[in-house]
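chain below, 296 aa
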Amino acid sequence: ETVRDKGIRPANLSSIKLVDLLACGDAWFEEQARNALRSRFDLGALGAEKAAVRDSLEKKATSRDAEGRTRLTAIWALLDTGGVPAGVLDNAVNDTDEAVRSWGARLGLASRVARWVARVKEGEPSAKTRLAIISASGQLPAADRMDLLEPLARGMADAADPMIPLLLWYQLEPVLADSGKARDKLLSGPCLQPLARYLARRMAGSMDGDAWLARACAGETGVHPSHGASLLAGWADGLAGRAQPPIPSGWEKTYAYLAKKSDPEIRLLSMRLAQVFASPDVSGALKSLEIGRAHV
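prediction:
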């Protein structure tokens, strides 16, 4: 017999009975129970049951025996009736259910950053939760996001994700644009390739940005070799449409370094940048390349 078969009317139940209804397994009844609890709280109608209701909700929200759905519904009910206690948010960090962890990040990341940093360093297995953590990082000042987001930026499992690389960039851009130290730290090892390209595009076109890119592409800032092509492509993206940009400091040295690379993609990208800067003259090399392709 289901809860619908019993003819239960949530509005007629006591507040404690409404808490029990949150675990009935019927989404409609669970939502009605939560709405009734919120309404009674807003009207001050929980009365003497308020403490017992909150205590029961907290137990459901942290119970390992309950389903993840029940824990999450209890967390929402706590939010509706005065706020989620710190202990519940602490427990959510390592909950076994990805939805509970995701909501734990949305509701309490800023007040327990160290716990979430430890979580992502250990490895967060759920892409949905990783996305929620990245989104919630906006609660933090830009300068405080690197420790949390750097491990996620190195998660190659998200390379093809349609949202995570771009959202990571949005959250990291303020600190990466202003801090050479942060840029060098991120690019010192492998990370999601779109981040390197977005960063180069963001830095391109300014005197300091182009000079940094010249040093980075020449291997002078400790940039990991895997970022070479992405930095060059992003640099070209950032300069697209600009009429005769000035030659950045150190470009000639950088081009000489890149011309010796064995990777044909890097050599070709460097020649395209040389065309943009009109230095050095690579027209002959490009012509020879096209002739070679025509005979393939």
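The CA atoms of residues 173 and 199 lie 8 Å apart. The chain is about 65% helix and 0% strand.
thats it, cya
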